[in-house]
Structures are given as C-alpha cells and as structure tokens.
Amino acid sequence: MNTVLAELHDKARAALDPVHYDYYAGGAGEEVVLGENEAAFRRLALLPRVLRGAATRDLGVDLPGGHLGMPLLVAPTAFHRLAHPDGELATARAVAAAGTVLVSGMAATVAIGEVVAAARAVDPAASVWFQLYPQTDDDVTACLVRRAEDAGCAAVVVTADSPVFGRHRRDAEHGFHDLPPGLAAENMRDLPGGPLGGTLDIGMSPTVSWRHLDLLRELTSLPLWLKGVLHPEDAVLAVDHRVAGIVVSNHGGRQSDLAPAAVEALPAVVDAVEGRVPVVLDGGVRGGGDVAVALALGAAAVGVGRPVLWGLAADGEAGVARVLDALRDEFDHVLALCGGRGLADLTRDLVVTRGTGVTGRCG
Ligand SMILES: Cc1cc2nc3c(=O)[nH]c(=O)nc-3n(C[C@H](O)[C@H](O)[C@H](O)COP(=O)(O)O)c2cc1C
Ligand SMILES: CC(C)CC(=O)C(=O)O
C-alpha cells in the first residue's frame, strides 16, 4: 500500500469508533474477495519500456459525465458523517480541488444538492455523479433521479450488484444496524410511499432487472453508468441497454464472497465491450502502481473507496486531499518509470503475471 494511505489508514483506525471502522473495513462472508482485490494486484507486474522520455505527462481523461484530471475517481461509499462531522461536504471539496469526480452515494449523510454545491464552491466546473440503487417502486426511482438532476449531477451510477445486501460478519458481531442519532441517509427523506427498509440495506430490491435500466434511460438524459459488472455477457447487455460506461466492481468485497478479484474480471469485460463504452475498475486500488496496472488492462480510470474514508476519518477534507494527491503523484511516477509519455502508453502487453512470465493476461 502507498505509505501515505497506510499512515492515514492507521490514523483513521485509531480515530474511529471500532464499530464504524469495521463497517467501513469489512467485507462479506469470510472476506475472501476483500483480500483478493488487493492480493490480485500484487500478483501482477508491469514491463517497463525504455528510452521513451517525456518531461511531463498528461494524466487527464474525459468520461461521459466529466473530465478527470487524473484517471481516478472516488467510488460511492455510504455514510461519510460516520467518519467526520463534515461528511460528504469535506469529501466533495477535496475531490473538486483535486480536479476529479466524486460519485456521491444514495446513502449519503448529506443531501445530494448540498454535496454538489460544496464541490462547485471549490470549482464551478466540478462534476459530481449520483449513485443509485434501483427501487422496486418506479416512483421512488424517479424521485431519486429527479433529486440528482435538480442538484446538478452530471451522471447517474446504477449499482447492479446488490439485489440483497451482503452478509457482513463484523457488523453482525457488533450488532450494527443503524446510524447513530443525528445522522440519516439524507437523500432518502420524504420519498413516495414512506421510508425504505433498514439503514444498512437501504432500498435494495431483489426484483431489479434490465427493465429498470430501460426505465432509467427514459427517466433521464444524463449519462448512465452500470456499476458492479463482472461477467462479460452482462457488459455486452449493458451496452445494448445504452449505458454510457461500465464499472467493473465486486463492491469492494462486500457482496458475493465468491466473486473474482475485480482486476481479474477486468480484461474479459474490456474485450467484450470492444471500446464502445469506457470501463472503470474499482476494488483494491491502494497505490499508483495499481492504477497503472488497471489502465494497462484496459480501464479508462479506477475508482477508490476505502482509502478516501480513511483520509476523511483521519483528517477531514485535508485527509481526503492527501489520499488523492498521493495516488496521483505515485501514479505519475510509475508511469514515468514504465516509459509512459501518457495514458495511451499503458497497454496490455506490459502486464506480466508474476511467477509465470506470461504477458497480456492476468490471474
Ligand atoms: C463502507 C462502504 C460503503 C459502500 N457503499 C456503497 C454504496 O452505497 N453504493 C455503492 O454502489 N457502492 C458502495 N460501496 C462500494 C464502493 O463503491 C466500491 O465498489 C468499493 O469500495 C471499491 O473497493 P475499495 O474500497 O477496495 O476501493 C461501499 C464500499 C464501502 C467500503
Ligand atoms: C447503505 C449500504 C447499502 C451501503 C453499501 O452499499 C455498503 O455498505 O456496501
């Protein structure tokens, strides 16, 4: 792990209520996938190219929904006010200052309108995306989409990997089911039909299907990203259903504990979509080298979840800023060491599976 991220993780662990630390850190089942997301990156290496110097490297990438100053965005994570009193406001400010995108969760502890306003106060051109769990009741889905649009979000990220909530042993052992008094999922207030389900499995629907994606396509003209895709055939279906982008993700190991590591699922999805839409990877990214490997395997960018929570818990807005700065700096350094003059120089032939010498594959 990047040393700044490791320092902030330790600081966050010391600062957080252990119950909330375990909610953030934990995974589903025996936490096999949680460990594999990071371990799979350690099994991959990058062959450097030589004598391809460049004084500086352009790290920017354009995606449907915004320009990223580096190929890294902040993945949606719930309940930032468990980490810091400023919650998503602090995250939004740091992410906007870093020139990248925050995907703000439906289960945020600050309403989406305030999150977007906080980002725009730092940078009027800042893009914030809204993450959505499609709902059983279409009126509720429509209401949430309208809230995202009214707030000024630039894209909607539809999470598809959570028909039911993963079983988290750490939360069960602590008896953690609800937010502490004074905190709430602010986007979920006053929805048609009244409050939805429990706090931790907020509004997940076991009936979600491709129909819901078609409905979303009709409800909004914002770019739609589909998050939680691992099977290449689902990636093709997603393109057929007119998504603007795909997020290869196993939800940070919090849903099926039988899923492969996210980076191991990435190449087949990239191949299946054949460049028709961009593919973002999240899960286990803990350093600039991981960003480089994911891009070499065909990701347009990566998403980062827990490290941002550690930065927030350790030091609020400044902590999130340090996480993003450290990842950008390390990624740029790795790119230079690999002979990369820009993102396009990260190609699949550079990727080697450690111990095999086989290039262009992973896993
Ligand atoms: C505490 C926590 C809460 C999360 N909440 C959400 C959520 O509300 N919606 C969602 O789509 N993904 C959620 N995720 C998954 C992240 O978007 C992302 O897929 C994952 O954190 C990436 O893995 P990483 O933490 O190893 O970077 C959550 C992850 C964590 C750790
Ligand atoms: C509120 C939860 C549904 C957030 C989530 O997706 C998670 O904790 O993994």
From TrEMBL:
The lineage of its organism: Bacteria, Bacillati, Actinomycetota, Actinomycetes, Pseudonocardiales. FMN binds at P76, T77, A78, Q131, T159, K227, S249, D282, G283, G284, V285, R286, G305, R306. Gene3D superfamilies: Aldolase class I. This is 4-hydroxymandelate oxidase. One of its GO terms (molecular function) is FMN binding. Glyoxylate binds at Y23, Y133, H251, R254. Belongs to the FMN-dependent alpha-hydroxy acid dehydrogenase family. Keywords: Flavoprotein, FMN, Oxidoreductase. Its cofactor is FMN. One of its GO terms (cellular component) is cytoplasm.
